[in-house]
Amino acid sequence: MKKILAIILSVITLASALCLLVACGGSNDGKIEISIGFWPENSQTSDVQMYNEWKEKFEADYPQYRIVASPYTYSPETVSAKGNVGKLPTIFQTYFTEPDMLIGNEYIRPITKQLNALGWLDKMDDNMREQLTRNGEIYGVPRDGYGMGLFINLEMMYDIGAIGQNDDGTYQLYDEDGKPLYPTTFDEIENLSRLVCEFYEEAYGIIILSATKQGGWQLCNIGWNFGAGDLQTQQSGTWSSNLADPGMVRALEWVQKMSQEGLCYPSASLTYNDWPAKIGSKQVMMAFVGNDALSQPITSYGFNKDNFAFVPMPTGDGTSRYALFGGTPYVFAENATDEQVEGALLFLKYIGRSPETDEISVSALKKGFEVAESKDMPILPTIKAWKDSEYLTLANNLENEHINVNYAYMKDFFDTIYDYRRKEEPNYCQDMYGLLDNAIQNVLSDKSGTANPTALLQTANLNFQNQFLKRLNK
Amino acid sequence: MLPPLVLFAFFIWAPLIQNLAYSFFSIKRFECQDFIWFENYAYVFSDPAFKSALINTFVYAFWSIVIGFLLPLFLGLVLSEVIHFRPGFRCMLYLPSIISGVAVMLMWTQILDGSSGSLLNGLLGLFGVEPVQVLMDKNLVIPVIVLVMTWRGAGATVLIYLSALQTVDNSLYEVARLDGANLLQRLFHVTLPAIKPTIKLLFILQIISVFQVFYEPMVMTAGGPDNASISLMYLCYKYTFLDNNPGAGAACGVILAVIIVTLSVIYFKLSKREESV
């Protein structure tokens, strides 16, 4: 028996050792490997094929490199597990709110020198560049930006009689004087929501998020538009939290009113993953979303791409109108070498994500549109990562040729986003959103209507100051 | 002797000791940096979410005894009396246990959704009842989650009770009948004492498992509304992976372990005293 056990254990040990050798053994052909975290998943066959074509071209032009697919969808829950064992891809996507955490934990590295060498530094959008800069070093390359706006189901808006329809089936989003018929104030959202609830038996005006820090994310923008100032301020080196700003209180009071009157979807645990399904199934008419997520109800829930409008965030006090502005940057693993970073940056040109306007970039941009069209995906306007005029002309012209949604329904948003955009708060932003989530959940779950928004925000404010900002004031 | 020791040391003791060490250090990339004494514990105790999680965990335990412990016992007793179609009933009871836990929670979240279009509210609407939002009600959310947990887990527990009930000596029932004992008297004086060891074992396992409630509130309510359903285990996860504060997560884990060990010791002491009496 002992002998059999010893043989089994020896075989297992030998097999494990072999596996380790195979796993750890790198290539020995001297090529520099670049693992690509934003590589599409295997199920997205046409995208994988497109990436393989780009890889072939790149490896032919730069034979010293080898591109390796390493699909990784970023999430705060998984990055630490990968980062702690040095298994993050050479280049991967994240959010603009994440660099502080990623840098603090030494998961990513600066790339200023490499960007400078390519001449890309001055071509980067100033706002995005600022969001990726810490202590004078740049930690990423922006892919694109998003601004928050209001998604409206126009079919429902027509059904409730809020807008008319033209002979060609398009919707009339403006009156005869050119004044918008879509809601431009939070009072108008409330009125429209009331019409929705009266017209439909099982539908609500709007979805208000309240969980996984996304409720706080949206409440910030609503608060700014009710006149809230900066939610974190620094005086004489000391950071103070202002979550109970009167503008924030008015914003939460608006949420409370919507909830009490049954005008918003009744749940206190909705996340950003929920809105496409609720919109797609006509359970709600409106949602606050980022422009980079507009295609989700269309691709995942069969929503008609000609039936939605995306308009600027409404104002609460008649004067304040901001759009929370964030986005997606590419960042580089802390253990990536200079050569790997240089190669990864060059590869961005081959996939049309660089500020270059040469033949390779143009062909990559065109290929991207072709594949999207072949999949019948909605092609929507984007907020560009680069400010270089030559690049902007090229990218905008190509985009305009391929946009396959009704641009008139979102023109106001894209015309004004650069004027209204406002970046997220500077410190412990996600933690701040989490505390605001609690305040929103309190208001949404309170049937009696006695929840006190001022007191709830004061509690959130105190907790944020004591738990987080206090660390900066040491 | 050596292989099991090595396995235990590697998979059980090392992580336990490492977690204890983490709770006294500032952590970067899951490596201890500076010894910070009780700072992680101070952070956890000063977090209002910890107070909610601690209270909630005991509330989970209470409801899991009321619903999750008594219901399977009752079902086991009833099923042991069933003569016809017993395998069918067993199969039906066990069926939810083979479904993925996360899938069960997602399904019930949809059923219990607060909108007027959800299955629950649709059914209530047939009887003219206004839509209810049980997952948004701070007082109802924990009992509802425990009910769903019981729906999923009761089948397995019932089978254990059934097998214990089958070991009860039939002659004891016959003697009790001869002595004129009615159904309830037979239950309390024969059946329950006979399966007492199983009941005790399942009771302590129930308490230990409910103290580790994690994915159920995470999937159904994300710990809300306003931390009304957050558990200590979920808070540990939240500190470590969502807030990226492994030190606080480790401290929270140590506190949870201390509570479970204390409760287990108290329980076994009481059991021992009872046995000696």
Write the layout of secondary structure elements.
The complex is a heterodimer of chains A (474) and B (277).
Chain A: H1 2-24, E1 32-36, H2 45-61, E2 65-69, H3 76-84, E3 91-93, H4 99-104, H5 112-118, H6 126-131, E4 133-134, E5 137-138, E6 140-153, H7 154-159, E7 164-165, E8 171-172, H8 186-199, E9 204-207, H9 214-225, E10 232-235, E11 238-241, H10 246-260, H11 275-280, E12 284-290, H12 296-301, E13 308-312, E14 323-332, H13 338-350, H14 359-374, H15 389-402, H16 411-420, E15 421-423, H17 429-445, H18 453-472
Parallel strand pairs in A: 1-2, 9-12, 14-15
Antiparallel strand pairs in A: 3-14, 4-5, 6-12, 6-13, 6-14, 7-8, 10-11
Helix pairs in contact in A: 2-14, 9-10, 9-17, 10-17, 14-15, 17-18
Chain B: H1 2-22, E1 25-28, E2 31-35, H2 39-46, H3 48-81, H4 86-94, H5 101-111, H6 119-126, H7 141-166, H8 170-178, H9 183-194, H10 196-210, H11 215-220, H12 232-242, H13 246-276
Antiparallel strand pairs in B: 1-2
Helix pairs in contact in B: 1-13, 2-13, 3-7, 3-10, 4-7, 12-13
